[in-house]
From TrEMBL:
UniProt cross-references to InterPro entries, sorted A to Z: HAD-like_hydrolase_sf, HAD-like_sf, HAD_sf, PhnX-like
Protein name: Phosphonatase-like hydrolase
Pfam family, one: Hydrolase
Organism: Kitasatospora terrestris
Length: 226
């Protein structure tokens, strides 16, 4: 495929453009503790493994799977968000090297860019504020604004519709998890690129449909712009 054909780039945040550095798992520990699940127990280990395996998925969906009851899932989600916000406000949320420059280069070259997340809108906005990234992309989306989160295609397809992009064949989806890759393949994206700065390794990214695997987001303009 000629790289010039890509007109829309749908980018994940944590692990792809924003450093995670274990923040999700730290916030999960707080959420689990709020529901009485203590670190070091078999139940905690089982839940933590599920969180790692489903990185990129809507967080409320993860908690619904883990705790079953909607009331418990909502409590866990609120505790998770409070803990994550505290970490972000504490200065622990930073952009990955080259991320802002890559987005700027893509937009300068006429590519529309959309930042997506598995977090809620309030958490996404907290991250954008911490980084000074409001306005860095053409659009930002969270699962509640698209219908379903990853691994469903909704976020990518909503980005396509909201930006007025003509075809899925003009879209690239980029992320650090297998669920990002599934989102891209299910949405029919021409490029589904995995990066190795986040949750999952190349084997998982390839298995879930990556057409390309990059060391980091800094390599993306070279892939898409030639």
């Amino acid at each position: 495929m000629n790289p010039v054909d890509v007109k829309l780039v749908v980018l994940d945040m944590a692990g792809t453009t924003v450093a995670d550095d274990g923040l999700v798992e730290r916030a999960f520990d707080a959420a689990a503790g709020a529901l009485g699940v203590e670190p070091g127990t078999p139940e905690h280990a089982r839940m933590a493994e599920h969180v790692r395996a489903t990185m990129g998925e809507s967080k409320i969906s993860v908690f619904r799977h883990l705790f079953g009851e909607e009331e418990k899932a909502q409590r866990a989600n609120l505790a998770f968000e409070a803990a994550y916000h505290e970490l972000v406000d504490g200065g622990l949320c930073v952009a990955l090297p080259g991320a802002a420059e890559a987005i700027e280069r893509l937009r300068t070259a006429g590519r529309r860019t959309v930042l997506t997340t598995g977090f809620s809108r309030s958490t996404q906005d907290r991250i954008l504020t911490a980084l000074g990234w409001h306005g860095i992309a053409d659009l930002t989306l969270c699962p509640a604004e698209a219908g379903r989160g990853r691994p469903y295609p909704d976020l990518a397809l909503t980005a396509l519709l909201r930006t007025g992009t003509d075809s899925v064949h003009e879209m690239a989806v980029v992320g650090d998890t297998g669920y990002d890759m599934l989102t891209g393949t299910r949405a029919g994206a021409a490029v589904v690129a995995g990066v190795l700065t986040g949750a999952h390794r190349e084997e998982r990214l390839r298995a879930d449909g990556a057409t390309h695997v990059l060391g980091s987001i800094a390599e993306l303009p070279g892939l898409l712009l030639g």
